[in-house]
Amino acid sequence: MDVQVIDVEEGMGHRGVADDGGAELNGGEVNMGKTLTAHDEDGNIEPYMGMEFDSEDAAKTFYDEYARRVGFSSKAGQSSCSQSDGTIVARDFVCGREGLKRRHADSCDAMLRIELNGEDKWVVSKFVKDHSHPMVSPSKVHYLRPRRHFAGNSKTITETYEGVGIVPSGVMYVSMDGNHVQLEANRGVRKTPPVESNRLGKNSGATNYVIRPCNRKMTLGRDAQNLLEYFKKMQAENPGFFYAIQLDEDNRMGNAFWADARSRTAYNRFGDAVMLDTMYRVNQYRVPFAPFTGVNHHGQTVLFGCALLLDDSEASFTWLFKTFLTAMNDRQPVSIITDQDRAIRTAVSQVFPEARHCISKWHVLREGQEKLAHVCHVHPNFQVELYNCINLTETIEEFEFSWNSVLDKYDLRTNDWLQSLYNARTQWVPVYFRDSFFAVVSPNQGFDGSFFDGYVNQQTTLPMFFRQYERAIDNSFEKEIEADFDTICTAPVLRTPSPMEKQAANLYTRKIFAKFQEELVETFRYTANRIEGDGAISTFRVAKFEDDQKAYVVTLNHPEMRANCSCKMFEYSGILCRHVLTVFTVTNVLTLPSHYILNRWTINAKSGVGVDERAGELHSQESLTLRYNNLCREAIKYAEEGATTVETYNMAMVVLPCLKSMTWVMENKNSTPGNRVAVINLKLQDYSRTPSAESEVKFQLSRVSLEPMLRSMAYISEQLSTPANKVAVINLKLQDTETTSGESEVKFQVSRDTLGAMLRSMAYIREQLSNSAENQSEPSSKRQRKAL
Fold it and tell me: What residues does the SWIM-type domain cover (predicted)?
């Protein structure tokens, strides 16, 4: 009997709706200054000394286009600031290879420098044309995503400026119709609406969110039909694909949302914390692309759904969020992170009333290097200290003290921009949200870039966009499979003798275990002293041995094994902090209580109960849609596993019969045990036929031939025990005198539960084959036939 074990996982599905519409796009021009008023027809203008631009952004747009045409990638380089007011008066735009591996000869010196003259014009003061490397074709040029500001422990100001690109942080624009679309006349690519609608008020306690133009009329033009055809194609190939399209007042295609089955499955597992990544557009001929993302059990970014936004009003975001919920079976997230936008904020409060909403800190800080360039240039450690203040403080008191210390140290009490950030601190500083779950396992989470980095940029046309979208999805799936493999097939190195560490190593994925292990190891540097209570509930003061002034308060309910820490790390990330673990150590709690092990962080996150079941979804609401979704969920988990390797794919494509029942009859029941034979009758259901058909297989088993079969079945049952959702393919080789070879084969598949019943039946048959005839007092009618 040959055995193959197939692992299958959970999925989900749902249908969507679609509408059509469309109109043509109008063109535009770029006014880059009085010397260059528009793109020449041949588009081959080269930078030259004395060339003028109206703005820094206009110069950057020109150089980026020049770089793309010539065949290299570009980025913003260093800037020079006025000593009087700190404003930028000069800027370098450099080749993407500038500063690369300086110890070798790989760095490229090609660059364009512009300086601000007395007439508020930016003039080219230096141009280095020659590159130290070969050029590539324009189609292969990629643009670097801008670095989020104050996002790491940068050591020098030069390092923090590297990697600045042409797209505002957190947004990609999709070019429609495959045409080169020029910018609106007299506008730079980053020019913003009036200051009052875009700035954080100096004395306001809340963020003044970006107000987007309400009179913008955009259409997809000829690509509207292409978009609809793509959606229909995807839904025909994958019934779990969901899409919805919002029509404008003229019945033309407006905003669009879609989510494939894999993304919806990811939300089912990890949809407790959601991030919407979109920023307002300054170029009315580009269409913002906004992905919904989250974090999986490996700490990786996963996609939940996507939107193309032609209308970014409050009503449109309300429609978008409601549509998103419809696609996700009305399952509300616990928390949601968005960009600074009044329309988004209002829509979130209406559609996600129970979710904790905060503003992305990377979006709030995006102007940091411009606003504080004079400080960064003089004090290289300033960014590090501000980063630590924002990201590494664990209590409100600690943040307030650290913030004031930074302001005093660098004499920034009068800086309007920092004051505006401080006034809005409760909406974006992480410490004010630590009492809610955001699935944060790293202070840099969200900084590493969007899900689609490297796949979509300003030159991406709509047909190309969907190819890149699918590649990004596939790449993400492959990374998740690799992380699954590492977790299952490698053992982590334990650093303590603690039973809790061994328990966590067997439960958590490698990424999450590493985080937990870091917290556990740190307990050796802490001490916990009971300061209140000596009964069921006690309060402890936890502090480092060498820094007793900074202490945390942990309250422990010993009978219920529940602890609360003032740092609120578990509430924020779902991983116990070193302070609670220190209290567990001194109170002799040796293993993690089950309620402190979130299934979403474990090895079995994709095979266990999903977020929706934890939220108490009522499955009793029977409907066609619900039954459809449940069936799609079961089908998708087989498809996910079947596609991982060629072997499992080939096996999955062959639909094997399923074991439906097993009966038997005892022959020679009055003879000695060695001469008795059980005739087994298996009924198999073949779903590969339409309609499905049933077949029977009969064979004999003696006590001798039954023993090895029992051992094999016991081994199969053990393999199916973890994880629970596997199926086994059983191949029986039978002696058959009616065939030329003298034997025949029967293949069928069994689940864990079916195999368990089969194993119990086989054990009973073995007992009957072994018992003496005189001890068989059971009535023959019951003894002759048993049903599985």
Answer: 552-588
